[in-house]
Every structure is written in structure tokens, then in C-alpha cells.
Design a protein that fits this description.
about 180 residues, alpha+beta, 4-stranded antiparallel β-sheet, endonuclease activity, Bacterial EndoU nuclease domain-containing protein, EndoU_bac
Length: about 180
């Protein structure tokens, strides 16, 4: 039992909070958003053969990052799937050229398929501010599972985001079903 004569043990209290609050919480969240959340959505932060392109969900930024790999972008795109109902949202399966220890493209040229597809938005159809607002809305209405938050904006676009240790959303991005 909890010191002070509490009705529940610390373990029981923790299990209650875990089941009722942390997992499956839906509705009006009141998240704060990290300083980098908007930047991550638009701008490329890193490219690696392990995780692919980090950030850069803006289509122009994503394609520019691929162009900077010194190979034909068309060789890097495996598939491009459109969202079923929202114009300007795409899911891209892609690969990155393998690099040598010096960071140059390895010879002979070979590629690493990136495991997680990239969801991008066309800034000619959806502004950076609009996608950010949709994402914030989806996060505030999202379901929490550990550090993962998934929610849907009022227009039907789904988003996935991540929480840090202080409960702040560090980044989020659109996803296809």
C-alpha cells in the first residue's frame, strides 16, 4: 500500500493510470508542440541509408534532398501512391544509394530500400501552414500509445506524431491508411 494509508498500492495506481490515461487516450489532448515540429514537417533534417530522409514531408524539399544524392531521382523512387480522397498527399517508397566510409556513393552503385515509406504533401496544393494546422488538430484529437500519437484532422487526413519525455509533440506527419 502507498504510505499514508492510501487505498491502492503504488503498482495498482500506476496500472490504473497506464490503462486509463496513457494507452488509448482519445479526445481533447492539450499538447504543447516542440520548437522543431513545424521545421521537421517541411525541411529535410538528415539523410541516411538506415532511416532514409528525416523530416522533409514537403514534396519540393524531399525531391531536392533526393536530387542531392548525385543520382537520377527517378532511379530512387520505387512507387508513388496518391491519398484516396485528399489531393496533394502522396506516399513514396524509395531507396538511397549506399555510401562508402568517406560519404561518397559506393562503387559499384547499389541501393538500400528504405523500410518506412515517406508521406509527402505538394506545397503547390497544400501550404506549409495548412498542413501544420491539420497536423496540430489531428494530434489534439489523437490516440496516445506510449510515445506514439495518431489522430485524424477534420478533413479526414491521418497523422502520426511522437512525444518526448515531457509530453511535448516533437514531430508529426501525414500518413496514408
Amino acid at each position: 500500500k502507498v504510505p499514508g494509508g492510501g487505498q491502492y498500492s503504488l503498482k495498482e495506481a500506476y496500472q490504473y493510470m497506464e490503462s486509463k490515461v496513457v494507452k488509448g487516450t482519445v479526445g481533447a489532448n492539450n499538447f504543447k508542440f516542440g520548437d522543431n515540429a513545424k521545421n521537421h514537417l517541411k525541411n529535410v533534417e538528415n539523410i541516411s541509408t538506415k532511416k532514409g530522409v528525416s523530416g522533409g514531408h514537403n514534396m519540393d524539399e524531399f525531391y531536392n534532398a533526393l536530387k542531392n544524392q548525385d543520382v537520377d531521382v527517378e532511379d530512387l523512387i520505387i512507387s508513388k501512391k496518391s491519398h484516396s480522397s485528399i489531393e496533394g498527399i502522396y506516399e513514396i517508397e524509395y531507396k538511397i544509394p549506399r555510401k562508402d566510409m568517406a560519404g561518397n556513393i559506393a562503387e559499384p552503385v547499389s541501393y538500400k530500400n528504405i523500410k518506412e515509406p515517406k508521406t509527402i504533401y505538394d506545397p503547390a496544393m497544400i501550404s506549409d501552414d495548412k498542413i501544420y494546422q491539420w497536423g496540430k488538430e489531428a494530434m489534439q484529437k489523437g490516440t496516445i500509445n506510449g510515445r506514439l500519437v495518431e489522430g485524424t484532422a477534420s478533413n479526414g487526413l491521418k497523422f502520426r506524431g511522437y512525444l518526448n519525455d515531457t509530453g511535448e509533440i516533437t514531430n508529426f506527419f501525414p500518413i496514408l491508411d
